[in-house]
Design a protein that fits this description.
Strand content: 15-25%
Number of helices: 10
Order of helices and strands: HEHEEHEHEHEHHHEEEEEEHHEEEEEEE
Number of strands: 19
Helix content: 25-40%
Distance between the termini: 53 Å
Oligomer: single chain
Structural class: alpha+beta
Mean pLDDT: 97
Radius of gyration: 23 Å
Strand order of the largest sheet: 4-3-2-1-5-6
Largest sheet: 6 strands, mixed
Bound molecules: zinc ion
Length: 356
């Protein structure tokens, strides 16, 4: 059983733990292969999955096939009691302090009075940073669905369509192409709204002369995609062209800078300096990018405060932007896999300024 051997060798033994309890849905899925709700208890010898009748059959097929013992809890025989029974005699048990509520933690503590509960901090999240070739293939397919969706909605980006309708079209196109869900709420930001990086779509109809920023992603077999394109409705004016080309140059420079062995901060600096030198430094407030996997915003980041080193096998977005209040904004985002030779972009939609 590969993953539990990995847990034993990389988590339990080096940290002197007898077991871990996992209920964060992303860690749960990563370790068990099941998208059920519930908890895992992984000891050096056994892997237990606790869930309820809504998920038991599916969990048997996925996690059961890789050796997990599937237990069905009920209101009469609650999960925490089952975990406590299977953990009887174990002393050092790791728990997800980044995920459990104080209330949940209290219940586990009560059920395991003789165990010492030890916070795992980012230990399990760190395990998810380097993607396997299988995971990368799923992320690539998720991003491909985004590309296909974008291509198909370009004819719909016209004066009169509202931000909300365009967002719905993008989401529909992703589902038609195989998306099982969305990695975050689709962003369509038009006109002055495009100055807000995380604008929520409104009933505003698109108008000639607008910047239209579309940031969207889907979920494919559990894995997220993420991409952003900005277009202009009608002919772009000189300032729009200048802002767009600055972001585009910065984005290309960010892709070239993304290499294993550098810190997230060192990579972030390259496009940030281009934007600064063009005179727009104060209008790029967010980090350059983030990792993506089962969850949309994973670590490590590409940002001025990221001291961690980027490694081969990480997935990172490269998404610089310029946002000017009272004028509008531009963001261009690709999702990349970090190879030993540098970034390989999984996003293939065009980046030349589109005047629609
Ligand atoms: Zn995005
Ligand atoms: Zn992103």
């Amino acid at each position: 059983m590969q993953i539990t051997d990995r847990i034993k060798n990389e988590i339990l033994t080096p940290n002197d733990l007898d077991a871990i309890i996992v209920s964060d849905p992303y860690n749960f899925r990563y370790l068990s292969g099941s998208d059920a709700e519930g908890a895992l208890l992984i000891t050096k010898e056994k892997a237990h999955l606790y869930t309820d009748s809504r998920y038991t059959i599916a969990a048997k097929a996925s996690a059961g096939a890789s050796g997990f013992l599937i237990h069905e809890f009920t209101s009469k025989n609650p999960m925490k009691k089952m975990v406590a029974d299977d953990a009887a005699g174990l002393h050092n048990i790791g728990y997800e302090d980044l995920f459990l509520t104080v209330n949940e933690f209290g219940k586990f503590k009560e059920a395991l009075p003789n165990a010492e509960l030890i916070p795992l901090d980012t230990t399990l999240n760190d395990l998810r940073m380097v993607k396997t070739p299988e995971e990368t293939a799923l992320l690539e397919q998720a991003e491909r669905i985004g590309d296909l969706a974008f291509e198909s909605i370009i004819p719909l980006i016209k004066p009169g369509i509202t931000e909300l309708s365009l967002a719905a079209e993008i989401e529909y196109a992703m589902k038609r192409n195989g998306a099982e869900g969305f990695s975050f709420e689709t962003i369509v930001a038009s006109g002055l709204n495009s100055a807000c990086p995380h604008h929520r779509p409104t009933e505003r109809p698109l108008e000639k002369g607008d910047f239209v920023t579309m940031d969207f992603g889907c979920i494919y077999r559990g894995y997220c995609s993420d991409m952003t394109r900005t277009v202009v409705l009608g002919k772009a004016n000189d300032k729009q062209k200048e802002v767009y080309e600055t972001v585009r140059r910065a984005q290309e420079a960010g892709l070239s800078a993304l290499k294993p062995g550098l810190t997230g901060k060192q990579i972030d600096e390259v496009p940030r300096n281009i934007i600064k030198e063009a005179g727009y430094g104060e209008y790029f407030g967010h980090g350059l990018g983030h990792s993506v996997g089962l969850y949309i915003h994973e670590d490590p980041r590409l940002s001025p405060s990221e001291e961690r080193v980027i490694k081969e096998g990480y997935i990172e977005t490269v998404e610089p932007g310029i946002y000017i209040e009272g004028f509008g904004g531009v963001r261009i985002e690709d999702m990349c896999v970090v190879t030993k030779d540098g970034a390989r972009s999984l996003t293939h939609s065009p980046k030349e300024l589109m005047e629609l």
